[in-house]
Automatic annotation (TrEMBL):
Protein name: Carboxymuconolactone decarboxylase family protein
Region (Disordered): 1-30
InterPro entries, A to Z: 4CMD/NDH-1_regulator, AhpD-like, CMD-like
Basic and acidic residues: compositionally biased ranges: 10-30
Organism from which the protein derives: Arthrobacter gallicola
Gene3D superfamilies registered for this protein in UniProt: AhpD-like (1.20.1290.10)
Carboxymuconolactone decarboxylase-like domain ranges (all copies): 35-117, 171-255
Amino acid sequence: MDAENQPSPSRREQAEATYERLFGPRDRDAHQDDPELMEILRGFVFGDVFGTGVLDDQTRELITVTVLACLQTLPQLSAHTAAALRVGVPPVQIREAVYQLAPFIGFPRTLNAVAAMNTVFREHGLELPLPAQGTVDDGARYQRGLAEQEPLYGTEIKDNLADLPQPFNEALPRFLTEFCFGDFYTRGGLTVAQRELLVLCALAAIGDTSAQLGPHGRACLQVGNSKTVIIAALVHCFPYAGFPRAVAAIRAVKDL
């Protein structure tokens, strides 16, 4: 039988093949306390979601790591850090995806995610720290950050905060420019297009960020992500962040 006439794999076969790519062969004889739930999980996540859209395994696992770090589901984050390595995501990309969450989820949760990630890296024989990716010093943070921020977001946040009492009217916009854009967007390891796509998924996972989803969706398009890729990335968030948050994010960007 030639390739064109080969029968399509079943949903279950697709799910098992995806699972094996990510985690290795599954021990089907191992005892499970909740086999029915796990069967539903594998079918939906690794059959339906992984089979829908245009994303490769590497991008999907970077999104998964991002979302799980935001949600602080550290056992699953550890498993998917290992899966990301297995499907060929460079360790520096995984690290950068987690590092850049600090402005969005705060340092305590970012440090929790970094600790889980580093444990996996050590288990895989990686030497820490990984190669440095910083490109700015204190004197350049603002100007370099502004060069990343302004083409994508203009002066909207600065203008919106201008009526705060001093010194906050100046300090808060400066913090955003120096910290989010100066400290992180200038780093190596990820392209700006990758950073924007992962930040959009982080905002979807956090929830209640409608004011940020629209601007970040537009920025995603501006730096070269197609609308198809953006929607596919948010669909990939479904099984991890839940339907309400994923659908809310899709509604916020679908008319861009």
